Each structure stands twice: as structure tokens, then as C-alpha cells.
């Protein structure tokens, strides 16, 4: 049986989705409602909270004939008569959802410095290892939830089909269907690599299954993604002090080097080209310039910074 925290998360997700006038997946929504009486109760609680917030906003805000007209029109194909279209259309909807969510959670954040790693054990069989320069938010009330705010983390999860582990990354959700997966989110974008089990990426949208030996990548600012092969042994290899690059931009290389070593690497302004290769991190801590011959790059010191570029 899913935990109360997970049910609330699901109710919030359904409330946001059903509040969209373009929503059409009513069959799936009704199946979820009917699967457990707790689902309908949680959904009612969420929508009641939203309705109260919407009334407060309406009382304090200016009248709007367009909104009033929209409220007078019933939504097509709606199967929950008490779900107001006005709530779905108002800004108070989203605000109240996240207010409700914030009140129902007891969040705390674990952070690592550049060059530092740290492990967090949530319960028996669930362990999250944070790479350098990483921030992950957890919930004391729900050990099946984590939010990767920035950086990279390896998730080794106790799988429970009735109460799946969920990772939020920006506006996307990852749902565990297995055991071991690595997630990275930074200025270059998002990547999800799986070595054991599987991960469902963005189940409410793209709904992509990432299987063992696969990596999903989405560049920063892009909505599309790529799915390619990766050696399962390479997933989370940063824990062992190794980094592997495949057709990586110099900005990406510099970012990963900073995270792993704590050394301020940066790509030369306007640098182009890509890098492929595998390196051990330990030698770089003694000699930051050693990255040059290892990956065929130019390296020059600039104050406390090491600037890399194409040769």
C-alpha cells in the first residue's frame, strides 16, 4: 500500500493535470480514484484547499469578466462535478497546490562541496550517494521521495511496486521501477543512466522507460531528449574516482571535473569541439594540468582557475 505522502503526491499531480482544460485521460484518472478510497479522500482534500485559496484570491483581486464567463461554462467530459473549471484556470490553483504540498512535507536538504562525496541512507536497501557540488532534498515523513536540486547522485533503491520511489528534477519526475540509477542535473541539462532495474522518466508527460544499459539525456532548455546505450559498469563510476566522456563539450568536461575534483576548471571562451575518453581523477588533484595529455586538451592557469581548450 502506498504511503500517505505518496498518495498526496499523486493527488496533487492528478489535480494539476485535470485542471488543464486540454486534459483528456479521464479513464486513467477514474481508475486511480477507484483503486483505493484513500485516493479520492486525498484528491478531495487537495481540491478543497485549492478552492479555499481561490476564494481568497477572488476576494482580494479585481473582477474579471472573462474569468466569470469561463466559470459559467461546464468543462466538457468532466466526470467530477465538484471540480471547478475556475480553479483550474486561476493562478491560485498552482500556488495553493504547492502551499498544500509544502505544509504536508517535512523537507531537509543535504549538500556537498565541490570535490566532496556523501552518502545518505533512507531505509534498509535505499541509499543515495551524492557527487561533489550536489544538493538533494529529502522528506522526513516520506522516505520514498527525493528532489535533486542540482548536481549528480546515484540512487540505490529498495523497489516496492506498491510504493514506488520518486525523484523530482526540475519540472520532471522519475519513478523507480528497479534498483540502481544515476541522475545528473546542471547547466548542461539532465541525464538519467540505469545500471539495474528501470526508471520511468516523466510518467505524466513523455513517459519514457529507461532500461539497464541506457542513458536518457535532455539538454538544458530543450524539451526533447535522446536515449542511447551506456555500459552498466560506467553508471555511477564517479564514486570510484573515474570519469568517462563521450563526445562531451568542453563546458561539460569542465563542469564534471569541477564536481569531481573541487578544482576550478573552466572552458576557454568560445571553445568548440568535443572530447571523448576516460580518466582517473586522483592524479589531477596533484597536477591539474595533467588533464591536457590525458584528453588531448590545452591547459593554462589563470589565477586559481585552470582553463581548458582544444589543441
How many extended strands? 18
Order of helices and strands: HHHHHHEEEEEEEEEEEEEEHEEHHEE
How many helices? The count is: 9
Shape: elongated
Mean pLDDT equals: 83
- CATH class designation of the largest domain: Mainly Beta
Structure notes:
It is a single chain. Helix 1 crosses helix 3 (37-60) and helix 1 runs antiparallel to helix 6. Strand 6 and strand 7 (172-176) form a beta hairpin. The longest helix has 24 residues, at 37-60. The protein is α+β, with helices and mostly antiparallel strands. Strands 1, 2, 3, 4, 5, 6, 7, 8, 9, 10, 11, 12 and 13 form a 13-stranded mixed β-sheet that branches. Strands 15-18-17 form a three-stranded mixed β-sheet. The radius of gyration is 23 Å and the shape is elongated. It has nine helices and 18 strands. The chain folds into three domains: 4-104; 107-232, Jelly Rolls (Sandwich); 241-310, 3-Layer(bab) Sandwich (Phage tail protein beta-alpha-beta fold).
Topology overview:
Blueprint lengths: L3 H15 L7 H10 L1 H24 L4 H7 L13 H5 L1 H14 L2 E5 L6 E6 L2 E5 L4 E5 L2 E15 L9 E4 L2 E5 L3 E7 L2 E8 L2 E3 L6 E3 L3 E6 L6 E4 L12 E8 H12 L3 E3 L6 E7 L1 H5 L4 H5 L1 E6 L2 E6 L1
Parallel strand pairs: 5-6, 15-18
Antiparallel strand pairs: 1-4, 2-3, 3-5, 4-5, 5-8, 6-7, 7-10, 8-9, 9-12, 10-11, 12-13, 14-16, 17-18
Helix pairs in contact: 1-3, 1-6, 2-3, 3-6
